[in-house]
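Researcher: Good morning. I'm working through a list of sequences from a screen, and I'd like to move beyond sequence-only analysis. For each chain I'm collecting a predicted structure so we can compare shapes side by side. This is the next one on the list. No need for commentary yet; just the structure.
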Amino acid sequence: MKWDTLLYGLLFSGLGAFSYLLLVNYTDLSDLVADILYSQGAFIYFIAAFNVLGYSMLRLDQYAICPEYSSALEVDADVFGRNVAFPAAELWFTGGR
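Model: Good morning. C-alpha cells for this chain:
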C-alpha cells in the first residue's frame, strides 16, 4: 500500500508537470498570462491539482464497486448512445441540413 501511494503520487505529479509544460510551451498566450504561468507557484499548483484529482478519482473508484454499478453503466451507455452519439453522428453525416 505504501508503494502504491508513492507510485500514484509520482504518476499524478508527472502528469501535472507534463500538462504544465505543454500549456506553457506550446500555446500562444498573451504576455500577461505567460508571465503569470512562468512561475514556481503555477507549476506547484498544476502538480497539486493533478494529485488531488487523481487521488479523488481513486477514492471514488473504490466506493463505486457494487453489483448495481455495472448495470447502471450499461443503462448510462445506452442513454448516451440514444441521446448524444446518434444525433451527433446524424448532424455530422448530413452536414446539419
